[in-house]
Amino acid sequence: MLIEFEFEPIYDVLKRIETHPELIIAIKSPYKNVVRVFIPDTTPVEHADFYFPSNKLMVNRLPNEFIKSHPNLFADYWEATGKIRPNFDEVWATTAHLTKEKAYLVELSFE
Question: What pLDDT was estimated at residue 2?
Fold first, then answer.
C-alpha cells in the first residue's frame, strides 16, 4: 500500500507523548539539538508500518509550514534539549520501530 507522506500522524504521536508522559519509556537528549523519545510499540499510531518501519530509520525534514502551525509543540520539545528560547530553522523527525525493544523511536533534531 502506497501512502503519501503526511505529517499529521507525526503530530499526533508528538502530542500524545506531550499529553501522556506516562507513555515514555525513556527520553534522552544525546546532543544539544536532539530529543530522542521511546514509547511502547503498543501505542496506537495511524499507519504505524509506514511511519515506524521495523528496525530501520525513517528520516524526514518537517516542512516549515507544519512547524509554524504547531509552534508551542515544537517549542516544548526544543526546551527538552535544555535550551529556553527556541532558536532553530529546521526540524528533522526520525522514526523507527525497534522490534527487539518493543518500542517506537521518535527523534527530533533541531537545526
Answer: 41
Q: Would you give the DSSP letter of residue 32?
A: T
Contact indicator for 91, 14 with CB cutoff of 8 Å: no
Residue 18 lies in a domain: no
* b/e code 69-84 from CB counts within 10 Å (16+ = b): ebeeebbebbebbeee
pTM for this entry: 0.89
Say if 9 falls within a structural domain: no
Tally of structural domains, the chain: 1
User: Mean pLDDT, 10 residues at a time, over the chain (111 residues)?
Assistant: 65 94 91 93 93 96 90 90 83 96 96 92
78 in a structural domain:
yes
Question: Which residue segment(s) compose the domain that 33 sits in?
Answer: 23-110
Q: Are 95 and 52 in contact (CB under 8 A)?
A: yes
Q: Is the C-alpha dihedral spanning 109, 14, 56, 28 positive or negative?
A: positive
